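Contributing new complexes? Match this layout with calcium ion.
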Amino acid sequence: MKDYQNDYPDHTQSPDYEHGDEAPSNRSNNPTFFDVIEARASRRGFLMGGLAAAITGLVGVGVSTRGALAASTSPLLGFNAVPVTEDDMIHVPEGYKTQILARWGDAISGDMPAYHGANTGEEQGHQVGMHHDGQHFFPIEGESPYEGSSTDGLYVLNHEYIEPRFLHAEKYAGQELDSGAVVYHDGKRDDDEVLKEINAHGVAVFRVQKQENGDWEIIADPRNRRITGNTPMEIGGPVRGSHHVVTKYSPDGTMTRGTLNNCAHGVTPWNTYLAAEENWAGYFSNTDQEDQKPNLPREHARYGVSTNPNARYGWHHAMSGADEYLRFDASTKGASAAEDYRNEPNGFGWVVEIDPFNPDSTPVKRTHLGRFAHEGVVFAKAEAGKPIVAYAGDDARFEYIYKFVSRDVYTPGETDGAILDEGTLYVAKFNADGTGEWLALAPGRNGLTRDNGFADLADILVNTRLAADTAGATKMDRPEWGAVDPATGEVYFTLTNNTRRTEAQVDPANPRAGNQFGHIIRWREGRDDPAATSFTWDLFVIAGDVGTSRTLSGDSLDEDNIFACPDGLWFDADSRLWIQTDIGESAQNKGDLAPVGNNAMLAADPRTGEIRRFLTGPMGQEITGVCTTPDQRTMFVGVQHPGATTTPEDFAAGTLASHWPDGGDAVPRSALVVITREDGGVIGA
Ligand code: FEO
Ligand code: CA
Ligand code: CA
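Output block (do not edit by hand):
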């Protein structure tokens, strides 16, 4: 409201902005623990692992390192660590082999258009999208997300964002362009470029099959489809039909078009896929002003809707002026919300449910899971007769971790996505004594009253971040993926980094100022009941170089496991914890981040705390997305944005930082790496 209207900067202009960064917009006065002096005094000793306490003694202290292999006691980690690398290749442990599958541009549907540098926007709509992220292998039987065929399935893959200079490589060749730049012609965008960009976003569903020779291939199938930034979607849950989502396209507020910036994902117990909308706000422009200052409603300002007339890609400047493009201009233009797209951004920031086995199904935005920079969704183990519980992180600096508990109980074979439409959304408060509380975001609870500006549940959900501010949640260091240990029910979340946290803002759950390396937090719900409103927590690992990191054993990370900026996180069926890293492209292979090399994937034993590097990736990319077939003998791993570190000058000169995976002088392409063992064994064991 007024706070935001008066001085709301365009965050894309800030010096440390990176493509994919959401605006830091949390201006609430929620206390950090160190505002309470007692908290500092009680820090030592409360954490199970003692890691936050250990951090206070790090400066200037020599830290011994030990070989993880030599001291290994973990029955879960049966491979030799791969070293840190800085080359343009995938490296996996001895005894493992890799295959490339589902590169950006590979055909999946329609006339199966072949990939080339001048594919049209329509062709892109039948091809694998760009920038692979969350993903899951659904066994072809279509009955369970985790049981069934290990050689045939529907693969569902999120596409987070795009790199226009590679998407339009032939047209843009020779121009000095950075990784987010698009080209305008007299202030307008070429329509087919815009369509190609929108169609390279979203989600891909395609059948994959293991062949006789052991290789995996994409198979034409009537269920193969692309869901894009233009696909019609239902708005479900409490926000459906509310005034917040009334647009020219949907005057009754029940529909919207497209999903954008799908980062991590979720897999429901009823065999559907959830795509999370993360850094969507910057795609929309709102140039409304009052007294020559930006004048954005709170549901835009608190999320970072752009005040730049072009926003991220200027899609609303498409030459044709077609309605599906104009909607990215969220400025007030008509006499009412039903005559313009002032509410278009309110249709984004949600979790989208997709049924991969029904190609005619319309995706549904499940609004009771909250509206924020949704990294992903992870479910607690579903038990018959108990509520469904799901966790989600808001990946922006100083944002929060959420939990949804359904009103209705789970009935296997009957429950569907509608169970996500009724229940309670909570936000996490991490207390300094190692306990925590789930604060309900519901009318009349935790200050969410009309007097405080929250009219009803739909208002709370559209303004989830402001509701969490009001409730008094704990500001975290960019919550990314979560994972639930199948053996214990403990929940792990990556906190990737937050270089803006000051000493005064340090707290036990976010224990480092200027946190460039990130950490992993975990908690156990009260009475081991996922629906509980209290929990106990500790830190699993504090990432970084050998001087500033800590594992559960109290040792520093060493040459076999040094890593930074944990992002992707996933438990396999044996409780092996897979950790994927995303050091931003401006920091990779430089300064304090140089010792950790290219982005990588590691495996950890949650009981012993041992961590071992399993895979390193090519130049300029992040490793994101991982799953296995039910037999755990084939693993799929995503490689996103190879070559993104190419400078504008080098792009103009045709000198790209990566040519992965095609090699030669090829344009780099996001792709899946399929990993198997030469002896056919379980991956990681
Ligand atoms: Fe898309 Fe938070 O990583
Ligand atoms: Ca991520
Ligand atoms: Ca990321």
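Reviewers usually confirm one structural detail per submission. For this one: The first helix runs from residue 2 to 6.
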